[in-house]
Amino acid sequence: MTQTENLTPASTGRSARLEVCLTPALIPLYNVEEYIVVIIDIFRATTSICYGIENGAEAIIPVSQVEECAAYREKGFDYLLAAERNGEVVSGFDFGNSPFSYTKEKVAGKTVVLTTTNGTHALHLSLKAKKIVLGSFLNITALCNWLKTQNDNILLVCAGWKNNFNLEDTLFAGAVVEQLKGTTLRTDDPAIAANDLFQLAKDDLDGYLKKTSHSERLKQLGIEADIAFCLNVDTTTAIPILDGEKLVKLVV
Amino acid sequence: MTQTENLTPASTGRSARLEVCLTPALIPLYNVEEYIVVIIDIFRATTSICYGIENGAEAIIPVSQVEECAAYREKGFDYLLAAERNGEVVSGFDFGNSPFSYTKEKVAGKTVVLTTTNGTHALHLSLKAKKIVLGSFLNITALCNWLKTQNDNILLVCAGWKNNFNLEDTLFAGAVVEQLKGTTLRTDDPAIAANDLFQLAKDDLDGYLKKTSHSERLKQLGIEADIAFCLNVDTTTAIPILDGEKLVKLVV
């Protein structure tokens, strides 16, 4: 599916689409150039980036490889360098993807270069999209309100875990589908499934997610406070958008 | 993830795994050689094959390409040749993947060569598995009873639609997870999600699936009778298993 037709809702006369890409491994099945893409990595990359941008970070530069991040040391910029792999800060870097590293005190007025196991990978596979924004429970309503103004196809890309499905990103996608229910957007099977799962989980997201196969792994990393933080809803309004190589605050 | 360690439950001392591969595009994420694989293509390939084997077909030979199927004309065997693409019988073939083509009258004592859009594709990507069996709602309890005797890792492979997620195969996977709940099998996030969706849908599978994005497409193909047939539960007990190039009846 590599044909690059400009299938805008206007050109086809059909309602715009709202679809869910359950893992980055499935991104090749989509013509991403037809969509506004929302990158989702709830634990913890997109949550932390949303928080950092809300807190006044000038920009956050997502890179795929640890080496790319490290190379910024030699470039003469006064950037903060953050790298996470398998839930832990990579040795030698300022911090990782914990939201507690993206407070006002730490990032206001600064630029952060960041690489993570899943979220930045999903973003880089989506680069041909019309627009790329980031979502988290923190800014979900602000994000959905903006999406409603776009009148274009939307692809919710779940970063997942190592290219496979995970529950938390899927639940978030389902929560977005829920907020966009009043529109004429046409959904697909993954969106239906994500929304049904969200309906099940919404009254106790934390409790529902405790049954996930990696909650034990996250607990062993000692990041339960991070997890709780990432499940706060509507505590921020800033929407990170990719502008060139940088994630910056979308001006609505 | 290409390392071929023999990670049997016995060798690792851990409980066997029960995992769900939501689409064939995700098969490369698994070391399939560590699993018994169950191929799932509810509408309609695995349903029809289960039905045909139950009805006394000697064997069903799954092939990937229409051309491979056609080539059997020249081989001098008295085989039936079946080919389906996009829900329709390919021109020039005896039939496709409608279960109504796999009755006793049509297939008893015969060998069928079959190619389909999704199911045979999923099977061919799983060839390194320890064993490959086929599942459908028709034989679900017989299948699960056999799986309980295996004491090995199980991977439920959803054929999906054109490499992407679909609801019906996921629901079936969730139904298998449900039946295997009394065991010590360790599940993953896709299995949890599939099972939760099955819990939602189980009292009215047909009604639930009407909201799927391709129910309209299936209706337009005029196969509503096929769909209803594929949702019958426990009407057969035969389990197709791959033996060499042929799917035959598993002798339990």
UniProtKB/TrEMBL annotation, chains A, B:
- Say which domain of life the source belongs to: Bacteria
Listed InterPro entries: ComB-like, ComB-like_sf
What EC number(s) is this enzyme filed under? 3.1.3.71
Chemical reaction(s) catalysed: (2R)-O-phospho-3-sulfolactate + H2O = (2R)-3-sulfolactate + phosphate
Keywords recorded for this protein, A-Z = Hydrolase, Magnesium
Task: Give the family this protein belongs to, as stated in its UniProt record.
Answer: Belongs to the ComB family.
* UniProt-listed HAMAP family: ComB
The name on file for this protein is: Probable 2-phosphosulfolactate phosphatase
